[in-house]
Amino acid sequence: MASVVIKQGKDGMRWFHSTDDGVVSFGVPAYANKVVSVAGAGDTVLAAYVSASLAGNTPQTSLWYAALAAAVVVEKPYTSTVTWHEIEMRNPNVRL
To answer: Which of 53, 95, 90 is nearest to 69 (CA)?
Structure first.
């Protein structure tokens, strides 16, 4: 069984997982309001997804965290960092 995440820019991201019964997938939208720079956005997605997964979240929740982290980072100039606090501020329902 294998899983893959495909980033789709302004169309968000999609997660695919192969099973014995076929392929399962789901997507999340892009949450950015105003894109300033996409430099480092892919690294941010990977870091947030892995961090959320290692914290025990489902793939769906981990992808959601990754999408919110990407939204925060692309609204900053150049390559930037993202904190969990910034992600929480983007959506108060987020708790890692």
So the answer is: 90
